[in-house]
Amino acid sequence: MKSSIRDTGDTVQALAYQEVEQEREVQIEVETVREVKKPRHAQARPQPPLHGDIRSFAETGRLPAGTHACIQSFDALRHTAVGRRLGISDSAKASTLFITQDFNKTVMPDHSALPRDEYCRPVHWLLWSTVTSTAIIVSDYEADSLIPVLRNNIEPVVYLITYAAPITRSMVSFFDKLDFFAIPPLPPTWQAPTWLVRDLGIFSGRTYFDFEAQYGPVCEALGLPSSARDRTDFDREMP
User: Fold this and answer.
1) How many angstroms separate the CA atoms of 222 and 217, rounded?
2) Half-sphere exposure at residue 154, Cβ-oriented, CA atoms within 13 angstroms
3) What is the DSSP letter of 44?
4) What is the 3-state secondary structure (H, E, C) of 70-125?
5) Could you give the CA distance from residue 92 to residue 114 in angstroms, rounded to a whole number?
6) Higher-scoring residue by pLDDT: 42, 189
7) Are 111 and 60 in contact (CB under 8 A)?
8) DSSP single-letter state for residue 176
9) Which residues are CB-contacts of 153 (< 8 A; sequence separation ≥ 6)?
10) Over the stretch 144-192, which tens digit does the pLDDT of each residue have?
């Protein structure tokens, strides 16, 4: 009897080992090899002083005529890899969202005609003028230089707003209204214009947006149909 029990136990153990070996044979092994792509070498651009036109804008809320201190945001986007591949419509240049030259230029130009997207700055600081409804994205250095100027304004018309592109769903509630933090504090009744939230999000590369508030404006900016009727007409026009 003991011998039969021992044989049964050995048989069960052998079957268990055999099953494990069969699983190992049919298991699909997935190998991932990470290749780190380093950015092309570039020489850092020397930090220039704060441009006088940007300081004037912070004090008066108006850009001097013919200034070269900033450029239209989507015009600058033309020179990126995405802008060259997909193109930027001329209607996008009607936006009054600008970026400073200091924000736009981070490295010294070279002889290569390739875009330098890996050296683009993230959007963190925004100047907003209540006089002309104009917004200018500035660099960290310019924001630090403008803080004393903005704090000394007796009747502020320009505000320095903190921003981060919503790349997670939870970030939408913090940064979509552009009232997370500002210098000086924003008026209690101030509301961010819809076009500013839309254009700023597209330029900064946001991945999440408020569907109810931004779906229509984003579709309009990207030339996509926003309603069922528009989608039907859009599908008919497609070859």
Assistant:
1) 9
2) 0
3) B
4) EEEHHHHHCCCHHHHHHCCCHHHHHCCEEEEHHHHCCECCCCCCCCCHHHCCCCCE
5) 23
6) 189
7) no
8) T
9) 59, 184
10) 999 999 998 888 999 999 999 888 888 888 888 888 999 999 988 888 8
Read off the tokens for 65: 């005529």
Cβ(125)–Cβ(162) under 8 Å?
yes
Peptide bond into 184 cis (omega under 30): yes
pLDDT-derived band of residue 2, with 50, 70 and 90 as boundaries? Answer: very low
pLDDT, residue 235, reads 43
- Among 122, 126, 140, 217, which residue's Cα sits nearest to residue 178? 126
Whether the predicted pLDDT of 28 surpasses 70: no
Contacts of 164 (CB under 8 A, 6+ apart): 122, 123, 124, 171, 175
Mean of the per-residue pLDDT values of the chain: 79
Query: To which residue do tokens 């939230």 refer?
Result: 197
Q: Which residue has the tokens 């070498």?
A: 41
* 54 neighbors 146 (Cβ within 8 angstroms): yes
Both structure tokens of 202: 């597209």
* Of 78, 54, 67, residue with least CA distance to 138: 54
Strands (E), 115-226: 125-129, 134-138, 158-162, 182-183
Residue 65 is given by DSSP the state T
CA 108 vs. chain centroid, Å, equals 23
Q: What pTM was estimated for this model as a whole?
A: 0.75
